[in-house]
Prior knowledge:
The complex is a heterodimer. By secondary structure, chain A is mostly beta strands. Chain A contains no helices and 6 strands. Chain A has one domain: CATH 2.40.50.220. The mean pLDDT of chain A is 95. By secondary structure, chain B is mostly beta strands. Chain B has strands spanning 2-11, 14-15, 23-29, 35-40, 49-54, 71-76.
Amino acid sequence: MILCRVLGHVVSSRKDARLEGAKLLAVVEVEPGGAERDELHVVADTLGAGAGDTVLVVIGSAARMTGPTRGQPIDALVVGIVDSVDVQA
Amino acid sequence: MLLARVVGRVNSARRIGPLDPFRLLVVRTERTGRHYVAVDTHGAAPGELVVTTSAAAARMCDRLEGIPVDLCVVAVVDDAEVPAA
């Protein structure tokens, strides 16, 4: 899993039929301390994350291992909204 | 698989239900220093060196079958001979 910060929503009218109803977020990878990495991802979300939230994201087929996302053409999913990260130096 | 050191943990009250029982560790890869979050079922502690396995292989670990996990600790390292970079 990777830590990301939510930048905002991605809205699309023309999309694969199996993406209907999926909520998509634009997120940027972050270090545990909060510093942004370069990589921008589009991830599906079923937990209700919003802009500014730090989220835990799974990549690959793991994204399709939940009821709502089974069979959807997605490869990234928010699996947790992060309250805090404790890191020792 | 990756060789990584446990450097912390992630606290998240709102998460996908099947992830609830598990500890979420921040691990830092030994060579490149990249940070990832791994599910831990082995009681790995901060400072310990671990081996992680990723993608579908992560869900072949005990108790992780069929849940949305893409990285987990598969071994806590007692000793590893790794030349310095």
